[in-house]
Amino acid sequence: MDGELRRQEILRQIQESDTPISGTKLAQMCSVSRQVIVQDMAVLRASGYDIVSTYRGYICREDRKAERIFFVSHTDEEIEEELNLIVDFGGMIKDVFIRHEVYGELKAVLDIHSRREVQEFLNEIKTGRSGPLKNITSGRHYHTVLADSEEILDAIEKELKDKMFLL
Fold first, then answer.
1. Residue 69: what are its φ and ψ, rounded to 5°?
2. Fold type of domain 3-60
3. Topology of domain 66-162, per CATH?
């Protein structure tokens, strides 16, 4: 399979998948090395595709119409409730970031669309290899949330406020 056909197949795979696909899996599917996949992703991004690498693999972002940043704070025990609230109302959690007085802005891509992905994220945190980014700033953090409409974002904002997560 030549490079162009391989990139078309990679793009089709990640666009049609409901979950991220790892570089290793894509490499196996295309009978190439993982490094070739990394290079192919760079070519696809340069061609205008919004491909993101998450801790679970590659995804092609959906075309959402509305985006808002929420400034929130909560305990570690409330992470699941906060994230589930957002996805239950139809939001997609694009990222989490903090503004640190010394290090500046620190950001991590999440791309969480569903309760199942919330559970996968929480399982990664529970391994203990790393803690939530919010803990660096005493619980205060931001989420960029995408949705199909401003009305959905308004409903998410109201619910975050009612649960006292919104700052």
1. -105, 130
2. Arc Repressor Mutant, subunit A (1.10.10)
3. Histidine-containing Protein; Chain: A; (3.30.1340)
Q: Where are the alpha helices (DSSP H) in 68-140?
A: 79-88, 115-126
What's the token pair of residue 163?
């649960």
Token pair recorded at residue 24: 């290793």
Per-residue pLDDT tens digits of the chain, which is 167 residues long: 788 899 989 998 998 887 889 999 999 999 999 999 999 999 988 877 888 888 888 988 766 578 999 999 999 999 999 999 999 999 999 999 999 989 899 999 898 989 999 999 999 888 877 789 898 899 999 999 999 889 999 999 999 999 999 99
The SS3 call for residue 129 is coil
- State the pTM of this model: 0.65
State how far the Cα of 111 lies from the Cα of 102, in Å rounded to an integer.
27
- Taking residue 124's Cβ as centre, other Cβ atoms within 10 Å add up to 12
Residue 98 in tokens: 């903090």
- For the record, the structure tokens of 131 come out as 């803690």
- In angstroms and rounded to an integer, the radius of gyration of the C-alpha atoms of the chain is 17
Contact call for residues 64 and 147 (beta carbons, < 8 A): yes
Q: Which amino acid is at 22?
A: S
